[in-house]
Give the backbone structure.
Amino acid sequence: MINDSAAPGVPASGPVPIVVLVSGSGTLLQALLDASADPEYGVQVVAVGADRDGIEGLARAERAGVPTFVHRVRDYADRAAWDRAVSEDVASYHPELVVSAGFLKLVGESFLERFGGRYLNSHNALLPSFPGIHGPRDALDYGVKVTGATLFVVDAGVDTGAIVAQCVVPVEDDDTVDTLTERIKQAERPQLVDWVGRLAREGFRVEGRRVVLGSADSAGGTDAR
């Protein structure tokens, strides 16, 4: 269970188990793996899941000795069957948090029934602007002067969940999609590491559109547990 106290350091019950989902190179995953090597971080990556084979994200997990699993959508009769299979595999590792770190598939009803309120996603734009898989491209096309990264609690919409944290990245005149994407990643990685650690160690609750550190109190809110 996620630690309900706000005391710093590792939860009394030991590091908080998390499962990370990836679809590509796994640079966000690597940041979490590196952080979790420090016992004081208070988080352990217990498994890494993916929606495709042969990606560097899985190789990173395997090099770190972390179990992996793969569920390809095309191997299932429909998306609901895929969603149930992913949910079962994730649940088998008993995570307190699940983190989408560049996972390019939307989860469905089965997944959110099990992990709603404790499934986090890091998006490469300043939500609610530029949701979807082309955040940096859309920011450039629109001509904004700043963009960034958003960590949020996933709900049934597309990048519509309650926001945990955001960081701002300036858009340069000579930026391309690739250069802007890379600069966003450089800001996104420390934000993800910092906040996953804080949420795991201290617990959190969702109050409407707000994510608040600490356990639920008598005023209501949804505990992440």
In short: The mean pLDDT is 91. Helices lie at 27-36, 56-63, 79-91, 109-115, 135-142, 177-202.
